[in-house]
């Protein structure tokens, strides 16, 4: 089974399904989103969508109504294509720890979603995800996905690794190869058994090759669509791996095991 480990709700959702078909991808982990760059028709409209993204990544978009809107969009997409998409739900990180636990229970677990993410703590404050990890631990092997590209800092990656050690039963996925700090991300994930590294947004081919070589059983093919393209990102994984078990793990086997799909 080929699984794209990182994608966001598209408008229209059928355009996303068409991309998966073109890439030969069976299923995709789907996150809710407040930004929709695929709606942009010119540079001005793209600026508007990316401003929404910037607010979210900077931790300045924690209004609960924004999350509710994203949850509703995600519900619609999953209901329309349950055989193609695997739902993960994000939660606000500025709530009290008890409220975060209740939100994970009500908005993720009760919906039957498979994990929490993509979380976007503000730069320098990755520690805010600890209540989510605690809640995930209370629900067994509930994977948690955290944004790894800018504005995530090198210190944030260290904080994530330290938290992963504290919650060893929770699979903690760092997205986008850790961004500009990809070498440190590879080292931290390699040395932390319950951490995983998702490979989207790589701007250097040998970064993907090296990550897979160092942690072949905990690297995950992902596109970050609509920001990336599953056709291209799958081709990149296949370019740097040979046919066989490692490629199969990266392209979906490891994610299927995490989700209990195998």
How would you portray this structure in words?
- The chain has a single domain (3-259), classed as Metal-dependent hydrolases (TIM Barrel), CATH 3.20.20.140.
- 47% of the residues lie in helices and 13% in strands.
- Strand 5 (144-146), helix 6 and strand 6 form a beta-alpha-beta unit.
- The mean pLDDT is 94.
- With 262 residues, it is of the alpha/beta class.
- InterPro entries: Amidohydro-rel, Metal_Hydrolase.
- This is Metal-dependent hydrolase.
- Residues 3-261 form the Amidohydrolase-related domain.
- GO terms for molecular function: hydrolase activity.
Q: What fraction of the residues are assigned to beta strands by DSSP?
A: 5-15%
Q: Report the CATH topology name.
A: TIM Barrel
Q: Please estimate the helix content.
A: 40-55%
Could you say how many structural domains there are in total?
1
Terminal CA distance reads 9 Å
Major β-sheet, in short?
A: 8 strands, parallel
Structural class: alpha/beta
**Please, how many helices?**
10
Per CATH, which architecture?
Answer: Alpha-Beta Barrel
GO molecular function: hydrolase activity
Domain Amidohydrolase-related: 3-261
Pfam families: Amidohydro_2
Protein name: Metal-dependent hydrolase
């Amino acid at each position: 089974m080929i699984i794209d480990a990182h994608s966001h709700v598209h408008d229209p959702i059928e355009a996303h399904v068409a991309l998966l078909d073109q890439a030969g991808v069976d299923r995709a982990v789907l996150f809710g989103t407040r930004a929709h760059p695929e709606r942009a028709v010119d540079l001005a409209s793209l600026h508007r969508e990316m401003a929404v993204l910037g607010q979210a990544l900077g931790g300045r978009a924690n209004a609960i109504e924004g999350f509710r809107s994203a949850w509703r969009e995600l519900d619609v997409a999953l209901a329309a294509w349950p055989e193609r998409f695997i739902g993960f739900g994000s939660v606000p990180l500025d709530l009290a720890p008890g409220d975060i636990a209740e939100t994970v229970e009500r908005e993720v677990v009760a919906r039957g979603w498979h994990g929490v993410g993509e979380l976007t703590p503000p730069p320098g404050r990755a520690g805010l995800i600890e209540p989510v990890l605690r809640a995930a631990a209370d629900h067994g092997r509930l994977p948690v996905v955290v944004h790894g590209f800018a504005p995530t800092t090198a210190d944030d990656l260290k904080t994530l690794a330290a938290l992963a050690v504290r919650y060893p039963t929770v699979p903690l996925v760092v997205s986008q190869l850790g961004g500009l700090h990809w070498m440190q991300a590879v080292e931290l994930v390699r040395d932390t058994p319950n951490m995983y590294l998702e490979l989207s947004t790589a701007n250097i081919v040998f970064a993907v090759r090296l990550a897979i070589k160092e942690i072949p059983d905990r690297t995950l093919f992902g596109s970050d669509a609509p920001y990336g393209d599953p056709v291209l990102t799958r081709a990149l994984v296949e370019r740097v791996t040979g046919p066989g078990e490692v490629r199969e793990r990266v392209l979906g086997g490891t994610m299927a095991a995490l989700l209990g799909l195998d």
